[in-house]
Amino acid sequence: MASALADPEKASRLSVIKFGGSVLTCETDFRAAGAETYRHIRTGEKAIIIVSAIAGETDALLRQAEALGGSAADTARLVRLGEYRSAALMGLELARLGVRTRVLDPHEIGLVAQGDPLDADLSALDEAALERALDDADALVVPGFTAGHAVHGAATLGRGGTDLTAVFFAARTGADRVRLIKDVDGVYSEDPAVNPKAARYDALDYDAALQASRGLIQPKAIEAARAGGVVIEVAAMGAGAATRIAPGPASPGRLRHRGPMRVALLGCGAVGSGVLDYLRGHPELFELNPVLVRTPSRRRDDPRAAFTALIGEALDGGPDLVVELLGGADGPAAIMQGALSAGARVVTANKAAVARHYDALHAGGESGRLAYSAAVGGGVPVIEHVAALKSAGLASIEGVMNGTANFILDRLAAGSEFGDALAEAQRLGFAEADPSADVEGHDAADKLSILIREAFGVALPPDDITKQSLSEVSADKAAEAAARGLVYKQIGRCRLAGGRVEASVSVETVPAGHPLAGARNEENRFVLTDAAGRTRALYGKGAGRWPTAAAVFADIMDMRRAWSGDERVQGRATVRAAALKSA
Ligand SMILES: NC(=O)C1=CN([C@@H]2O[C@H](COP(=O)(O)OP(=O)(O)OC[C@H]3O[C@@H](n4cnc5c(N)ncnc54)[C@H](O)[C@@H]3O)[C@@H](O)[C@H]2O)C=CC1
Ligand SMILES: N[C@@H](CC=O)C(=O)O
Description:
One of its GO terms (biological process) is methionine biosynthetic process. This is Homoserine dehydrogenase. Its EC number is 1.1.1.3. Pfam families: AA_kinase, Homoserine_dh, NAD_binding_3. This protein folds into 3 domains: about 10-250, Acetylglutamate kinase-like (Carbamate kinase, 3-Layer(aba) Sandwich); about 260-375 and about 550-565, Rossmann fold (3-Layer(aba) Sandwich), CATH 3.40.50; about 380-540, Dihydrodipicolinate Reductase, domain 2, CATH 3.30.360.10. The longest helix has 20 residues, at about 545-565. The protein has 21 helices and 26 strands. The strands form 5 sheets. Strands 3-6-2-1-9-11-12-10-13 form a 9-stranded mixed beta sheet, with helices on both faces. Helix 3 packs antiparallel against helix 4 and helix 16 packs across helix 20. The protein is globular and about 70 Å long. It has about 575 residues and is α/β, with parallel strands linked by helices. Bound molecules: 1,4-dihydronicotinamide adenine dinucleotide (NAI) and the ligand N[C@@H](CC=O)C(=O)O.
């Protein structure tokens, strides 16, 4: 099918992901759905997210319509509200993580159906409108199950119709992946909740899928996939493996279930507390040791976990995974080295420890056992992009890479006092425990030092990077700059010149039209440039509980998949050199 999105480079980086009512059982489930979406975005994919109503809402709305006894078209108008609500909740969750997101109602993208208004078939989509929306967003959220209707104004697509919406979008956009997220890890010969001995399939053709997946996938969606040549993946939240529904022979495949991974969480502050919530959302995947905090007595009323001040208790029994979120450099680095030597995997957001102990933390460690995506950029997946674009020959990186500094400068520009702006950044959980790290540029230098390692393989300790302090900037100076069309920014820069790396953290004014000038609040921005002058810009939230915890949790889920042998998951290589734009 012809499509404005059929450009192979764009289409191969586009996923359609559908979250059904079995995984959206209550409002807190949107947190897990957001984390699942972020996992795709951070590998460089764009995603169209199709959502169902929260479980039970459609039935309740149908009962309400039935009691009133209106027309089919008015029933469709009422029943669609469950999906509209889910789309809004998903948009809010993704925005909280800093994912550039747009929620689109059917009329904004010309999504139209025909036939019975309560069991309609999708017939039209304005692909050009969708492509325009994708230009400025990494995730588009669309309510499933509903569309406009030329005759009746509104329609729903029959039970399970969100599957049909997802397949229709995949067919029309040329996306190479449509993933239906369910509460099972694939299609079984029968419902495994009823018959635990039912056989799971790795692959099924469309006819076999129609037989096996009754009650799991809407039959109209399977027929639409067959007609549109769409490969459907059916998977559980967070899983790599999926059942693929595509032309070809059926292939049974039982997954190896390893049970919960034992996790030691060290630190439960701004970031650790968010990570604890994510971990608790998956009791089937993670078993928590007592969480390391300074004062367990202050946690008496926190029912989420057991707490301890003793590192020995936190690491008791040799956990499979250590998540370090303490802050500081030497102490945490020693703990992480010990854990790696003992064979554990380690995830951290600690840039000071990684920058200062890079060699020790990478020495002897099996590759892939240490991950620190959140250490640079918070929720902006800059380390992933640098790793993937390295082969294109990166020449320089510049960016706003400290959320607190950017937040303060933004507030100064709005007339706030320096002290008030800093206090607010601390209250919001952006600042380091010692905020002079943010203000004096040490934190940005730590991040730059890590990026230099990842991009150029060169060791440049953070202490050797020149820095400028923010403290010279005031509201008056910011106002003077604004009158001249300039904006103050703290900018980290590094570039490879004649085999040597030059790097600095400066506080300077840039013209309002500069790519870094528009960074607002705690936002981070990065511009990666290759030797041919092609650039790639990355934007997102660089600090704060949820964006950072989502990045940490994405690393944790990668570790869990590797640990359990569930590695059939898209990797970092999804970000391609083609993602670089000519200047
Ligand atoms: N807050 C943010 O936006 C981001 C933070 N990070 C990094 O994540 C890490 C954690 O940051 P936050 O959660 O913001 O810090 P935080 O200060 O809010 O939390 C750290 C927690 O660990 C506890 N802690 C420290 N040393 C301890 C020890 N020896 N024993 C027991 N408890 C101890 C502290 O009491 C505190 O509750 C840091 O390395 C930070 O640089 C990275 C990206 C963003
Ligand atoms: N203090 C840091 C936290 C994230 O790395 C910042 O403000 O950027």
